[in-house]
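Work Package 4 report. The design task specified in the project plan requires that, given a folded chain encoded as structure tokens, an amino acid be chosen for each position. We show below one input record used in the internal validation round.
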């Protein structure tokens, strides 16, 4: 039997820029990006804006228009599309259709850009539309939440929810660039500010014990909204995520996904709560559950488990949502294991902890231990609440 064989690799490169007031006339960061990527064809840029960001920054649209008026590098599409933010944007396929229609209407070709300003859900949606239109339009991300600046907005994944399942449709398509502007963080609610910290706890627990100790030490400042402390957390968390993407399996061809520590239950919890629980809040609950399971299965010492739970509590995460309770094999949250395996493909692969900063992959979760783990977490929160009363 004869055959032809093809093999090639494609190099992806993009930078995460950290700045203040990106659209100030005197800030050259964005224009310097276009100057550093010159072309002899007309380039357009089409902005999509999270409604929550637009409401919090009513001067943002005129600032964007003024910023691009004083340069010749790229042509701004004057209509800036404002869409609802939050997980609801990923549940509404009509928003995806609107984005594709806008690409067609404004002639956004493969030399042009779609720029998304908003939280992780809006970035996911716009990134997906960019990735599939014309088989790939250049995409710029401008994350505006802690969660999107330190995790979802800096990676290579895009997607929308479909058939009631999180990220059922999506692509692996790196952005052209990411611009983290810390001034967007100042208008976040306390809940949104805090939510994104859970992803930093997650990556510290599986990658960097020193970072976990730092979070322990600085939890009070983080909750008090100290911007310098949050900026350090975002940069270090982003660095650890990027290092993992570059050194492991960026397009997730295998079944191992250590960066999804705590996520199998988190994704299901979001769905069961009708997305009233924020992603970061659900991740905190998932971290607590899988850390307790790690202890009960003999992988992690109880003193280290308690350090994890105390940090989550200190960061004001409520990890006692009743949806995380596992009473028997029919408990709704357990369906998250099956759906997580389907999403991964192959065999079930869950990351647990053997130490602070060290993860271990397992391929089976014992339901009786999961029942005990959920009870441990809920008992911890009730005891803690009693102590604080």
């Amino acid at each position: 039997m004869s055959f032809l064989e093809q093999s090639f690799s494609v190099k992806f490169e993009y930078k995460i820029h950290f700045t203040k007031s990106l659209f100030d006339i005197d800030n050259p960061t964005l224009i310097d990006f276009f100057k550093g990527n010159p072309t002899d064809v007309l380039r357009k840029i089409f902005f999509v804006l999270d409604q929550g960001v637009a409401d919090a920054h009513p001067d943002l649209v005129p600032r964007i228009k003024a910023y691009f008026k004083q340069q010749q590098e790229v042509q701004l599409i004057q209509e800036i599309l404002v869409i609802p933010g939050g997980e609801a944007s990923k549940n509404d396929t009509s928003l995806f259709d609107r984005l594709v229609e806008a690409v067609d209407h404004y002639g956004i070709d493969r030399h042009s850009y779609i720029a998304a300003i908003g939280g992780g859900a809006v970035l996911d949606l716009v990134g997906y539309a960019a990735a599939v239109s014309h088989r790939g339009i250049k995409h710029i991300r401008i994350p505006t939440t802690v969660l999107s600046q330190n995790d979802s907005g800096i990676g290579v994944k895009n997607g929308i929810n479909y058939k009631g399942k999180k990220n059922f449709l999506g692509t692996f398509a790196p952005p052209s660039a990411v611009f983290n502007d810390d001034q967007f963080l100042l208008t976040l609610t306390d809940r949104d500010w805090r939510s994104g910290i859970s992803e930093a706890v997650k990556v510290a627990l599986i990658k960097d014990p020193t970072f976990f100790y730092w979070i322990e030490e600085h939890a009070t400042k983080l909750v008090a909204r100290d911007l310098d402390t949050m900026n350090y957390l975002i940069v270090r968390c982003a660095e650890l995520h990027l290092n993992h993407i570059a050194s492991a399996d960026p397009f997730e061809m295998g079944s191992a996904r250590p960066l999804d520590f705590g996520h199998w239950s988190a994704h299901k919890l979001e769905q069961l709560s009708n997305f009233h629980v924020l992603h970061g809040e659900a991740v905190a609950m998932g971290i607590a559950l899988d850390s307790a399971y790690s202890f009960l299965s003999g992988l992690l010492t109880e003193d280290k488990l308690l350090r994890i739970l105390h940090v989550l509590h200190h960061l004001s995460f409520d990890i006692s949502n009743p949806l995380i309770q596992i009473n028997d094999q029919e408990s709704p949250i357990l369906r998250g294991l099956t759906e997580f395996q389907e999403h991964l493909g192959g065999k079930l692969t869950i990351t647990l902890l053997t130490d602070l900063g060290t993860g271990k992959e397992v391929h089976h979760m014992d339901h009786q231990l999961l029942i005990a783990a959920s009870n441990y977490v809920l008992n911890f929160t009730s005891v803690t609440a009693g102590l604080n009363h």
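The mean pLDDT is 91. Validation will be extended to a larger panel in the next phase.
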